[in-house]
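Q: What structure does this chain adopt?
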Amino acid sequence: MLKKVKYNPIVVFAALLLCTVFLLYKQLPIGAVPQPTSSANGQISISAVGDIMMPGSIQNAVAHHQFRYDLLFEKVAADLATADLTIANLETTVDHESPVSGYPRFNARPELLSALKNAGVGIVAVANNHIMDAGVYGLKRTLTNIEKAGLSFIGAGRTKAEADRIVYATRRGITTAFLAFTYDTNAPLPRKKIDGPGVNILRTNDETGLERAAMVVRRAHQTADLVIASIHWSDEYRMEPTRWQRRTAAALIESGADIILGHHPHVLQPIEFYRARDGRQGLISFSLGNFISSQNQGISNDTRSQAKALRGDGIILTIIAVKENGKTSVKRADVLPIWTLREKVGQTVVYRPVSLLREIARIEWKPKRSKEEENTLKLLGFRSKVINDMLKANARQQ
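A:
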């Protein structure tokens, strides 16, 4: 059994209104078999966002715009596009043969995937409790639609063998391996069918399952410069990681993972650096919060301090990894606070993520502001402070 080791101090910076625009580079296809890595130096930036949820309120608003899902991400697309790779948790099925639906069984149209691609997302984790919401065939059609949109998926497959595969992406001479696991699915999988679909399950407090996941991570570590594991875990709306989350994150980093990206609580949890026994510095984001949802519905400046408002908080986490003399390591993590803002687009009201810093600056620069804009400014300023205070408090505790 793997032993726990101590956490190193966090080096997380709450920043990034303006991101560096990288020079154009030649990209190898995501999922291509990695070639032996060279000893050349390189640097890669990887951005990660939280849960992409498609409730009825958002789906209905998009329907009034001819299902132009792009409007949902237009205020953060520039932030996502600056990274070499961007990964998100897709918490909805995308089955074009089933009707559009919201909670409790999410299903969106394929245009959502094109919008994510246009916004800069390249990889989606589909190992989550909602991936079976449209059944076996809905899962298969979802994965096919993801591929048609030019995205890659991790954590599930049309067959169990496909679910078990490691997805690779090579950028700037650095090969990254991507894996994903979930605590369970809302609808059961057809486990007895050999050719049936698969979802990578890592149940809570399942030490045998953890060792299986650790074996996959070790295999990825042997074939890639950097290993990223997306994990759907913990309890909804819980702000602190559980003992099992810490146990799992430590075990996977000790096995070769470099970055752990957590999902499912729908609120932010701490970000921590972890020093493995072999000297590697791993990064754990226990929960990235929501990227887009309407779970903060009803929150205004008057109710800005309610616990429900935490469900509107999120971040764009950008990780910088550097390859020096053939060895790749995580060097830095930058955080861009975001908020799911309810605002009018045309004749409809829609929830969509905005950069808190940018949106605050946009409203402040107006020579005249309406009462509604003043209230929005106060709301966003308060949520920005909540996120930054949480990050600072976490940093002091490490």
